[in-house]
Amino acid sequence: MFPHDKSTGFGPVNTSRSPHARLKTLEFRNVLLNEGFWTKKININRKTSLQFGFEMLEKAGNFDNLRIAAGSINGTYRGYVFQDSDIYKWLEAIAWEIGKEPDKELSSMADQAISLIAAAQRPDGYINSYVQTRKVYQPWIDLDNGHELYCAGHLFQAAVAYERAMGDDRLLNIACGFANHICSIFGPNKRHGTCGHPEVEMALVELFRVTGESSYLELAKFFIDQRGQNEMKGHRSYGPEYHQDHVQVRQVVEAAGHAVRQLYLASGVTDLFLETGEQALLDAMLRLSKDIIETKLYITGGLGARFDGEAFGDPYELPTDQCYCETCAAIASLMWNWRMLLASGEGRYADQMERALYNNILASPALDGQHYFYINPLMLREAKYLRLSTDLPPSEVFIPDQRPEWHDCACCPPNVMRLFSSLSHYLATHDAKGIQIHQFASADIECDLKGTSVKLNVATEYPWQGHIKLRIVESGNSPWILSIRIPEWSQNLILSVNGNRARDLRREKGYLVLERDWRAEDVIEIELEMEAKFIASNPRIDSTRGCLAIQRGPIVYCLEDGDQETKGQLLDVEIDKNQPLITSWDSDLLDGVMVVEASGQFIDSESWHGHLYQSATFPIPVNPRTTRLVAVPYYAWGNRKIGGMRIWIPKKTV
Ligand SMILES: [Zn+2]
Fold first, then answer.
1. Which of 232, 343, 456, 541 has the fewest Cβ atoms within 10 Å of its own Cβ atom?
2. Is 546 within 8 Å of 537 (Cβ atoms)?
3. 310 annotated active-site
């Protein structure tokens, strides 16, 4: 029905024909993950989380909202205005999974949802169950906060997934019907305005990549150009910057406002650059990235320092306890950095993806795949109060035993689901000269290079071990370049090719560059420096001044109160950076983790005799007691019981 390109087979982003992409995405089916760290997580996502998501969407009223919109049941709409988007993200996750391997139960659940969406869609193409279930049908009356285009964007992305993963165009028909409807309403000589929550921009670009329909790309540009009118109402005390409407996209100099909105917008802008090559767009994104990386990024890859407005704070405003760090913001960061990587070929963006993935993002789902953090603090004090989601009723502010099953605003769980189900998409790319490996996982990678097939096998125990073995399975007919990212945390590495250690390493843009006339069965081995390290923070970050964190490979560690020798004293610990960090593998702990032990001491805060403040003239006795500090990966915290936790630990002072 549609003039499809050769998009079927690709993953969430297809830059194979994007004229300004330095790197081209590989076909989704050509990167297959083998047994290893991520396969375990992805299997839990596939076998548990997706079924669980179906039940939660039913329980929360998401499906009923569509049934009411379709007229098949009577009732009242439940939930936030953007409930439909939860279904679309969950459907996207299912598409990637059953595209990899069919599953009758998953297909059956998804088919029910697709039928509901089809039934709810109006003859003119419009679909949004919130608007359709109002007493009076009034679309597009609240662009600032109505989320209609946001929901449309998630529908488009799910449709793209169905088309690419399986060549199934049921959702694509629905999506294009809606996209055509939107095109008929919005545009340069039509209605002006854009959505208060960016998302539709990148989705429209992807819809263009699937269908070849240029009006979708033009509409994405139109919506991007509309931003910066300084007219959106904002949220509570936040004005237009909440929606990134305070500045035109090409004039952006800093990250501001609602973090997820900012990062979804950045993804769309970068996608537009990949298609149009407009330098002003890329320049703006480079400024935005610099501002984030230099002043607004948590060690966990978390973004959004403030609860208020779910927003970026000022430069260096990075509180560890009352931070926001929404799971969706870290996922959005990964999505945006992927596009920046595709645009630039620079490994620093893959570094940012890795930081977000192994820490902030992976901390969201519980190990059981049925509970999710929405907000990801870096510290929990007395385990008494933990804000779990935005704008929740007071009862949910108090600390639970574990992550909540679902959230009133359930944007994060299905976002994790769709990312995990499509994770192999982000491992590698190619260009005219060769293949680039960005993330490390055991996998089989296939690519058509210079007209011949090249196949690689990657074997690694990453992220627990730094040894990565790449074997050429099919070499192609002519020399090509294998580029392997050198992680920012491991500048010292050992490389050997066919058992011979290489001395002169060629490094470009954060990659180890190996150009050869490869032969089948050639073996490349890399040993990354993987010992646990102390990490310091910029002294301008007040909340972490005088503290150290522990990182091993890409994984940031934390202390959980329950693991320490003295319980309930996590506020009183100090760490000794002059003593070694000792790592040990514990296969029984938290589904298998590398534990890091440090030397430290407890400080006797009782010596303060109930004072918060005392004269600093005289030294105050602290009676230090030596102790071992036990650190576990931050991503696994709160899986035994949610209790005191901290990533940043004060340095030993006496
Ligand atoms: Zn979220």
1. 541
2. no
3. yes
Query: What is the predicted pLDDT for the residue at 382?
Result: 75
pLDDT of residue 391: 58
Strands (E) located in 78-201: none
CB atoms within 10 A of CB 116: 21
Centroid of ligand 1 to alpha carbon of 398 (angstroms): 19
Query: Cα torsion for 62, 64, 66, 72, to the nearest 10°?
Result: 170
Which pLDDT value is given to residue 392? 56
Say what the pLDDT of residue 491 is.
80
Sign of CA dihedral 163, 16, 226, 253: positive
Cβ-in-10-Å burial (0-12, 13-18, 19+) of 455 comes to middle
Catalytic: which of 148, 310, 326, 354? 310
**How is residue 298 written in tokens?**
């948590």
Cα 418 to ligand 1 centroid, rounded to whole Å: 13
What pLDDT does 387 receive?
77
Closest CA to 330 of 350, 307, 308, 352: 352
Q: Is 56 exposed, middle or buried (0-12, 13-18, 19+ CB in 10 A)?
A: buried
Residue 527's Cβ-count burial label (10 Å; 0-12, 13-18, 19+) is middle
- Choose, from 176, 195, 325, 411, the residue flagged as catalytic: 411
Q: What is the 3-state secondary structure (H, E, C) of 230-248?
A: CCCCCECCECHHHHCCCCC
Contacts of 256 (CB under 8 A, 6+ apart): 241, 244, 246, 247, 262, 311, 312
| 534: three-class secondary structure by DSSP | strand
Measured distance CA(141)–CA(133) in Å, rounded: 14
Angle, vertex CA 585, rays to CA 580 and CA 591, nearest 5: 135
Distances in Å between the Cα of 575 and the Cα atoms of 78, 495, 605, 621, 647 are: 49, 34, 16, 18, 12
Residue ranges of the chain whose pLDDT lies below 50? 1-5, 395
150 C-alpha to center of ligand 1: Å? Answer: 13
pLDDT at 620: 74
Cα 298 to Cα 312: distance, rounded to the nearest angstrom: 11
DSSP code of 375? B
CA of 326 to the centre of ligand 1 (A): 6
Give catalytic status of residue 447 as yes or no.
no
Q: Work out the burial of residue 617: count CB atoms within 10 Å of its CB; fewer than 13 is exposed, 13-18 middle, 19 or more buried.
A: exposed
From CA 449, how far away is CA 260, in angstroms rounded? Answer: 36
Integer distance in angstroms from the first to the last C-alpha of the chain?
74
Using the Cα atoms of residue 419, residue 421, residue 424 and residue 425 in order, give the sign of their dihedral. negative
pTM exceeds cut of 0.85? yes
Does the CA dihedral 333-241-374-203 come out positive or negative? Answer: negative
The string of pLDDT tens digits covering residues 612-635 is 888 888 777 788 999 999 999 999
* Distance (Å) of CA 513 to CA 43, 403, 480, 487, 508: 33, 43, 10, 14, 7
User: Exposed e or buried b for every residue in 281-304, given b needs 16+ CB within 10 A?
Assistant: bbebbeebbebbbebbbbbbbbbb
In this structure, which residues have their CB less than 5 angstroms from ion ligand 1?
A: 326, 328, 411-412
Query: Closest by alpha carbon to 390, among 363, 359, 412, 362?
Result: 412
Tell how far the Cα of 227 is from the centroid of ligand 1, in angstroms. Answer: 22
Å from CA of 412 to ligand 1 middle = 4
Report, in angstroms and rounded to the nearest whole number, the Rg of the chain calculated over CA atoms.
Answer: 25
